[in-house]
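To start, an entry.
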Amino acid sequence: MTDEICNSTKLEHLTGYIVSHLNTNVLDNKMDAWQENGKLIISGEDRGNDGILICYWRYRAVIRIEEFPHQQLNPYNLFALIACWLSDYDSERDEDKDMDDPDLSVDVLSHDIADVAVELDLMEPVEMIPDPLGMISYKGQTYRVQSVPIDTAEDAELVNETAD
């Protein structure tokens, strides 16, 4: 997950992305999003810096847009935005063959409007770092839920030795 979406869930980021890119007041108070059918996938992977990837939270994300103005705003824009977001912000889904492509349904209500529902599987890491004041006890230590900091090398030395 990129730094840009670490402070929100993927679903929150995706819905914000859709609203900001469509840049229209057409969606004001017409869009709702929720998680359902959640599942914990236990990991316990050591992430370095004493951090632990304790599990993944996998869920079915649902985004519902009421009265989408399909004559005024081509729905393909919405479809393209979702595909681009998945490519840019959820590229690891390609590594997991069990993550299906999004399901879409469009219920045309009139010549001008339709209800649109998007359903897709999302999965997010749940990481912990040591914290003496944390609320989680694990293997004799206390933790808090937070992304594990990643150390990045600032310098590197390349050595090119040639055989004589």
